[in-house]
């Protein structure tokens, strides 16, 4: 049997009998069926809790500091001499410009093609030797086509430089 204090609290939230609802007295603690109107706030509160916890996780603090060697560090734990920074959602690694790992190869290819073009332009005739040692001399029209093709190759290989 609940105490008077408990009954007072219950009556404050459940003031009196409704048709179809049992009355509250010392014999009845809480009715087994609360009206639907009283269940709705609890239902919405239960729905909102996961959303609110997700908002807190998204608002994690980020700290930035520079160590003795001059390297910049970021962490979610504050370190001595650290400052809090604002990290915008979606500002991840995608936005960071990274050097091209094939940059040296591309530069070497560009240099090689430019040297080839210079050689072709300075030569009066172009003779090509295949893998079997057979030589072939280009006509003036073929030489001009080869020069144009090599210029296009230089332009495409060296356009980013």
Structural commentary:
The chain is an alpha+beta fold. The protein folds into three domains: 55 residues, no CATH class; 27 residues, no CATH class; 56 residues, no CATH class. It has four helices and five strands. The termini are far apart. The model has no long low-confidence stretch (mean pLDDT 75). InterPro entries: DUF4124 (IPR025392). It comes from Stagnimonas aquatica. This is DUF4124 domain-containing protein.
Could you give a quick summary of the protein structure above?
The protein is an alpha+beta fold. The protein has 4 helices and 5 strands, in the order ααβββαββα.
- Name the beta content range: 5-15%
Strand segment count? 5
Termini, distance in Å? 87 Å
Structural class: alpha+beta
Number of helices: 4
Count of folded domains: 3
Rg calculated over all Cα atoms:
40 Å
| pLDDT < 50 stretches | none
| Physical arrangement of strands within the biggest beta sheet | 2-1-3
Mean pLDDT: 75
Largest beta-sheet characterization: 3 strands, antiparallel
Helical amount: 40-55%
């Amino acid at each position: 049997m609940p105490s008077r204090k408990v009954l007072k609290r219950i009556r404050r939230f459940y003031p009196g009998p409704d048709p179809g609802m049992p009355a509250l007295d010392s014999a009845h603690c809480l009715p087994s069926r609360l009206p639907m109107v009283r269940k709705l706030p609890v239902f919405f509160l239960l729905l909102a809790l996961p959303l609110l916890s997700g908002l807190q996780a998204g608002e994690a603090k980020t700290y930035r500091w520079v160590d003795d060697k001059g390297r910049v560090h970021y962490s979610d734990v504050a370190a001595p001499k650290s400052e809090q920074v604002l990290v915008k959602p979606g500002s991840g690694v995608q936005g960071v410009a990274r050097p091209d790992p094939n940059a040296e190869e591309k530069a070497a290819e560009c240099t090689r093609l430019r040297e080839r073009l210079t050689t072709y332009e300075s030569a009066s005739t172009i003779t090509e030797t295949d893998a079997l040692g057979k030589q072939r001399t280009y006509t003036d029209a073929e030489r001009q086509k080869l020069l144009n093709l090599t210029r296009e190759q230089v332009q495409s290989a060296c356009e980013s430089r």
